[in-house]
Specification:
Immunoglobulin-like, eight-stranded mixed sheet, binds zinc ion, single chain
Amino acid sequence: MRKLSLLLLATALTATSGGVASAAPTAPPMDLAPYAKGRSQPVQDPVYPAYGNPSIDVLHYGLELGWQPSGRSLTGTATLTVRAVERLSEIRLDFGRALKIDEVTVGGKAVKPRHHKDDLTIPLPAPLAADQGARVVIRYHGVPKPHKSGQRRIDLELLGLRSAADGSAWALQEPFGAFTWFPVNDHPSDEALYDVAITVPKGWAGVSHGKYLGKSEKGREATYRWQSTEPVASYLTLFTADRYRLHRDKGPRGIPITYWTRKEDDRMLRVARGLPDLMRWMEKKAGPYPFPSAGVVATSESGMETQQMIALGGHYMRPRIVLHELAHHWFGNSVGPRTWKDVWLNEGFAMYFEMQWTADHEPGTIEDFMSGLRVREKHMRQEMGPPGDYRRDWFAGSNVYYAPALMLHEIRKQIGDERFFAMTRAWVQEHRNTGQDRASFTAWVNHHTGTDFTALIDAWLDSRTSPES
Ligand SMILES: [Zn+2]
């Protein structure tokens, strides 16, 4: 609907000017070259179309955030470098209704935005032509509220920023919910670069996605700085504030690692310190770790592959789950799904590598683990729908983990171990920092193996009943 109305508007402008193409003058061009790595081709989501905006491509987010534990409140200045995908007279972003806007400027000029429910619409002082850029600065404050998702998976009932009575806060959000703490094009097809600064009272720490650049102190406050030089999808962003202690480590090839745990988190820290070994195991199987830093932060619940800083609650802090979230850095974070229709591309691979790691380190073979998945997969497919067309209130149900892992195992049995792992390594190497879907995955597998796996892949993803092997 949005794209159509803009098209009609453009046509009307051309028509009233008597056939001469002289629509309103556009904004002066802005140099977008420094942000080339943040360039994406956003699309509308077929499963959750209410989030994300395919008419814009955010190249970079500069987030200056302040967290006040006593009031559990947030202040923010978000500087977005936006590329227009088509001619635009306004920019619509996802932004939580609980937060209040203080000021918005576009290219330094103050504008009056409209904030309705979780949509923020910003009028442009001059229209943007397709491929032109604008710098949008949004100042805001408030007490963030998580989004009630209506999802059946219990740890996804609330999405986005949550806080506890002690003032600690953490934001995890898949498939969407970053809009509860910053204005965002909240869709995996629009990846962007980030600079994040989190200011907290001294004694607290603010942890985000990307590489830790260090902290500075001023008066009673400390500011923690983070940078992502590889593109990040909004669901992989991270905000946490707690009384963390920093522990440093090194991964393969000297990759810097930071662990962020509270003083009572001894057990969690011991598990987190296994990360370099897990990275070495993954590198043998899937090729070089695709990011310039890594880390683990102890949060209050759930487990998430937030980019370059895995977030895990106490129940989830186990080597096998750290491995799963780490595997996502190849399968999901580096090569991601273009839309939520293909979340199986994330979870199938991560589950399969988790199973292989378990088979290599604990009693039982990969065949034993796959037989176990097979028994349970049948029921999940009925309850949650097939993994390629799941029920939309069953996001990230076990069906999108188990069935695609079994599908990968079937392909492995047909082509042999060596060719299978060479293929998975090449999938990441050749598609680094891109979004993919079923069609591109299937075409690539067929081309790479010289065998037509289309029917096998479609059966595992679409069938209402489990395929027989
Ligand atoms: Zn996963």
